[in-house]
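note to self: dont lose this again. the chain is below, predicted strucutre after it. 679 aa total, dont forget to put it in the shared folder this time
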Amino acid sequence: MASSGEDTSNDDDMPPAAAAMAVGAHLLGFSDEILLHILSHVPSTDLVLNVRRTCRKLAVLCLDKSLTHTVLLQKDYEASEDKVKQLVKEIGREIQQLNMAGCYWLSGATIEHVARCRSLVKVNLSGCHLTSLRLSKMLSALQHLRSLAIDVSPGFDAGQLSGECKATLSRVRELKQTLYTPSYGVVPCCTSLEKLLLYFEILDRTREGAILSGQLMVGQSNVPHYQNLRVFYARLAPGYINQEVVRLYLAVLSDRTPENLHAFLISVPGSFAESGATKNLLDSMARNVALDALQLPKSWLNGSSLLQHMKFNNPFYFSFSRCTLSGGHLIQRVINGGKELCSLASLNLSGCVHCLSPDSLLRKAEDDIDSGILETLVASCCNLRHLNLSAAHHHSSEGPGRHLCQLLARLRHLRSLSLPVCSVADSAPRADRAPAQPAMHAVPRGFGKKVRIGVQSCPSPFSGQAGPQPSSVFWSLLKNVPFLERLELIGSNFSSAMPRNEPAIRNSLPPCSRAQNVGDSEVAAIGQLAFLRHLTLAQLPSILTGSGLVSIGLQCQQLQSLSLANLGMMGKVVYMSALSDMLKHCKRLKDLRLEQPYFSANAQFFQALSQCSALQRLCLVSRSGTLQPEAVLAFMARCLHVVVCHMFTGESLATCKSLQQSLLRRFSTMVMEELNSLM
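---
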């Protein structure tokens, strides 16, 4: 019973209007600094067009320079054309940085309103509809622009750029250019370039079937200017045309290597033959520059002595993906014999099967790594934040302190980590010990509660296998890297059925034998990562129930991106129940990708998925899988934020087309209803 001096008022008894006012009063009682921090998480369109109109105090705070100088519209799918136009009208003069990347739904006429933001210093228009004339008109008005990101699509003509536009481009120092057609784009106009990012997405053929050629660039306007270049980055999609075009860009670099070049990175899927011009470029770089970041095609590094002659200043990024780099070369040529490299923040050794082994290239997949090499690497690169060791068999030998997980636990600054599944297994199965039977088939002894064999009892977070044990090396690793934001646990032999930048492989290899020791308990250990935002789990054959997924859903409340592929037995989806329980707790999940044969996208699955209120993108890849069109329609009706829904299953083409038409009709009806409500 409450004493007479206690306040016995109950907020639940207050009228809704009064309760709302009370909450508002408490919110406005915070200091301006706290309120500004809270408002920084509100989308710019809502901030300026809605929140600003609630009261006088917020009207002032919403126009604070810390909130209006930078406007992010990327992936803000609720930013309609009218909202964007009104936003530019309200605060256009204050905006200095504007990110509209991927705003494909906005028309060119709306994008043109960017010209009113006269104070712009940085603008990202990748994925936006822009013609040469619109780009010219827009850039002519942006005299303070120093950073630009655009797409170069078929029909682009640099000859249509005005003198005022070229004057603006001559002052641009950073350029990101995505090419969909063979072209130099605006690079020749950017005479002050210090940072150049090139993305090659050119198809080998036009829509009419004509074969494209890089020779289309011959005779175009002046060649690129690289004399002030500090960073050169090129990422190529598959296709010979992309390689042909990038060679034309590199040809200029080979003539005269910029003296201030600090970062040189080229990402190429598959093989990319080294030409005479590229060899001259690499030789020139080895003689004249000291790099801070390096990434080269594997064919340029394999068998060459380039790393032995290359000079590095204070390196922060190295990528040797799929190179035949041995452990000895890694230590001697990259880490310089164990020299301290505190500046190195990112290291990609994906697919480097020999990088943690001695110089012998006769290593077999089942051979153990050399823990001394890894220990030297960890000691030298103590400030690593991003490490990728996937797509290789890294097996640890038995012995105290020699396991890969125990050594990586010393990297306390890690924020992203990618490992092969077999590398986190505690130890190799011993010949004198019979393999442990799955717990789901075991019958408890003694006087405990009896369990009927073959009947599943009430699910628990750690059903199927024991929970994460403190003695597990993987559990200990995750305990020592509590601030990890991205984790990838991928089978050494895994290959996606629909890869982004690699050819699809139909006959995938079986999982590594040591991966059989990694199951639900190891997955449950991931629940320790309270700051985890992105998680990928692929080719874990010993998943019995998926119970560890429930632990992740309950404890990893910051999770935004989840990718699951080939978990458990390939002929059966064993984790459907656990996945449904997990999804109920993923309130911040935006991206979900599932790749699992025989997956049934039924009403149970979509009912659970509909509780992910923030979901925006769904991708389902399932050979011989099924889906229920009615469940899909109900899901899309409930989850209004979903903008991408890709489902590749075994359903017939007629079923898919019927579902697509139903979704389009429902969307058209919703748009008409919304328009009628506004009239």
